[in-house]
Amino acid sequence: MQKQEIANLILKILGVYVIVQAIAMFQYPVFIFTQLLRLSERTPAFYVSIVVSLLPAALMFGAGFILIRKSDKLAPALLGEDSGNDIQTSKLSTQEIQAIAFSVVGLYIFVIGVPKLFQFGFQIISQPMQMEVARISIRASWPNIISTFIQCLLGAGLFLQAQGISKFWYQLKRAGDERG
Length: 180
Description:
Blueprint: H1 3-25, H2 27-37, H3 44-69, H4 71-79, H5 94-126, H6 132-160, H7 162-179
């Protein structure tokens, strides 16, 4: 297999995995929806609850679909810009395989984190601030929000800097081999 084919395949596999994870996440919104249907009053909070519960799964499903459908356009980004025109014809070196692996892991971490950030943001915006319970809930969510934000940054960094990380990793390994 060539670089482009491998990158395409990896992105499609990742897309399928993300969709499977998204489908598994839909059980929570369905449960919320069935519980909310029992309420006689349809307040704005009713609709907000439905949107907040559906948002992460829908975003993940969409991201998985994009990974599958646009894998041919995303593959060059996965391989890095310095691959040039030889993406279609050359074989992969160990360092390039590492860079692809870092990119895939980074993309996965990012795709998993972004829906959570949207959900946190929507929850913060939708909760009435005058209620003490809502304030306590938001304060309790900050560690999760910050860790998810850091997760997204790390995922984006791994994806966007995979070539540099792979070179650094290779240099570390080479330096360790020379000592031992």
